Amino acid sequence: METWKNLMGAVLLMVMAAPAMVSCGDDDNIDLGTPQYEGISGKYTIDTPSSPYESIELGASGDYIVVEKGSYLAGVGARSGERVPQGVFGQAEAASRATDYNGVIYGRYTQQADGTLNLEGFGIVEIVYGSGEEVIGFNLTPTGGGRLELDVTKAEVMPDDDKTNAICRTWKIESIREVEYENGQKVYDETFTAGSHADYGDEFPVEALISKSGTYMVYYQDGTLGISSWKWKDQNAGTFYYSWDNSWYDDEFATVTFEGKGMTVYERYDYGDGYVEETYSYLVEKK
Are residues 72 and 133 in the same domain? Predict the structure, then answer.
């Protein structure tokens, strides 16, 4: 059996393929408010040459991603060999949470009384504004280190609309249903939660951060994470592309629908010879 991280991709593909359970279009019942840090959220590229960091992303729900220079992400687009579909919850590489092991740091942040941001496990950030509300710099004091004055440029963000505003936040993955068919006959149907199946150990995806900067990050129960990119395929239908290697492929897309404060991600993968997998992933907003 495939590892859970590869399996997750197939599961999500299946979720997208089940029209009886997942509706598309503009009839979603979206009941999601504005995330707490929507106003300052975004991916900020660091322009200061001497900086050891490549970028700092502030998620709308209060999660951050720091990418160090020389991290594994720098070479993601240059991998060679046969492309293996990973699925929307799969991952091309892994990095440890809240460490510099592979050059990616992920954690929570909160705004303090003085307006600075406490990036838990990383440091304190003071946002520097230019004219108006334009962010032009970060004064960063890493935990145990000296103050760094960094020039930054905010990456382009997607326009506001109901579906983009709804999907762009941090989600907790409650369960994943996998269905398999052979020659049109259902041969497998099981639902998984974190720790519910010994075969997958701690490789269950437990969080997904999706941002208007095009970042798609999955955090797994074992403390590893995978970072992908995303963009809308057909927004009205709720379909989006995802990419683990900085390239876009016609068969790597998923479908999202909303109901209240929850989101369902559906993915379908046809292996040929009559074998099809469908995956339904059920998510709720992380608070």
Answer: yes
pLDDT tens per residue across span 3-41: 334 434 433 333 333 333 344 445 588 889 999 999 999
Q: What's 274's domain CATH number?
A: 2.40.128
Q: What tokens appear for 65 in the block?
A: 């991603």
Q: By residue range, what is the domain housing residue 110?
A: 38-154
Report CA Rg, the chain.
Answer: 19
Q: Determine contact, residues 122/143, Cβ cutoff 8 Å.
A: yes
pTM: 0.82
Token output for 28? 């979603």
Alpha carbon distance 229, 216 (integer Å):
5
Question: Final residue of a domain: which of 128, 154, 180?
Answer: 154
The token pair at 43 is 């991916």
Q: What's the confidence (pLDDT) of residue 151?
A: 98
Domain count, the chain: 2
Contact 89, 9 (CB under 8 A): yes
Q: How far apart are CA 86 and CA 101, in angstroms?
A: 22
For 225-251, the pLDDT digits (tens) are: 888 899 999 999 999 999 888 889 998
Task: State the first-to-last Cα distance of the chain, in angstroms, to the nearest integer.
Answer: 34
